[in-house]
Design a protein that fits this description.
alpha/beta; Rossmann fold; seven-stranded mixed β-sheet; four-stranded antiparallel β-sheet; 26% helix
């Protein structure tokens, strides 16, 4: 049996990612990252840029942004969104999309003033060695004194296990009707949560079913800050929401802002 990897399932998830996120997170994290990136002089790198949910609004605001993602299907959707815009719109010039592995970023040393890892991207790294490789790679491409911003989704390990629960349904682009049927299983010893996703797509009398799994690893925030420090970062702030309020254990989101050390 093949080992479970954090990128498994994301190619299959691509057609449904924007539909689901519009009904859950929506765009409430976008203003936070737009404000943070707009304060930076120089290029910004987004890890796990996906379909461009955050990349495009930042580029539209004038941020010189590079988005990297492992999934070709996710990036194809992001590129189509860019091409649908008018050719004079600034994101056409400000945004570069690159396929790559965040554990070994395909960029030169010190080329970015800021790196962002929104919406729990680092939770798709399922082993310590994957997380350490990513943090080392970020430290390499980030200029000394540059900012690394990341957020984590803390409630994932608290989800009760269940089987075949209808989570959401509704219309999608193109007239299809989608139903998400979900199962959840927990592996507390390994800090893993796996979502078994089954999307039922109806177009008139035609019904198609799409199945895949997404797995996330959730570490305590103190563990994450220690790993950042070991990779050469100083943690400047730990926030509990996108309005900048202080973090505590009950916060809906955990946001860490760290600075690249000079050594």
């Amino acid at each position: 049996m093949a080992k479970k990897e954090g990128w498994h399932g994301w190619e299959e998830y691509a057609p449904f990612y924007d539909w689901e996120n519009a009904r859950t997170l929506g765009r409430r994290d976008v203003p936070f990252w737009r404000r943070a990136a707009s304060r930076v002089e120089g290029r910004v790198l987004e890890l796990g840029c996906g379909t461009g949910r955050i990349s495009l609004p930042l580029a539209r605001a004038g941020v010189s942004l590079v988005g990297v993602d492992r999934s070709a299907a996710m990036l194809a959707r992001a590129r189509r969104r860019v091409l649908r815009r008018h050719t004079a719109w600034p994101e056409r010039q400000a945004l570069t999309l690159v396929q790559g592995d965040i554990r070994a970023l395909p960029f030169g040393t010190g080329g970015f003033s800021m790196v962002v890892a929104p919406y729990g991207v680092l939770q798709s790294l399922l082993r310590d060695r994957d997380l350490s490789a990513t943090l080392d790679s970020v430290a390499r491409v980030l200029a000394v004194g540059g900012i690394f911003g990341l957020d984590l989704v803390p409630d994932v390990p608290n989800w009760r296990e269940y089987r075949n629960k209808v989570q959401m349904r509704g219309r999608a682009a193109g007239g299809a009707h989608l139903t998400l049927v979900e199962s959840v299983r927990q592996e507390p010893r390994r800090h893993l949560t796996t979502f078994e996703q089954r999307y039922i797509e109806r177009r008139g009398r035609k019904v198609a079913e799409h199945r895949f799994e997404l797995t996330f690893r959730t570490l305590p925030i103190r563990t994450m800050t220690r790993k950042l420090e070991a990779a050469g970062f100083t943690v400047d702030a730990v926030l509990g929401d996108y309005r900048g309020r202080p973090w505590d254990e009950r916060s809906d989101v955990w946001i860490i802002l760290a600075r690249r050390d000079p050594h």
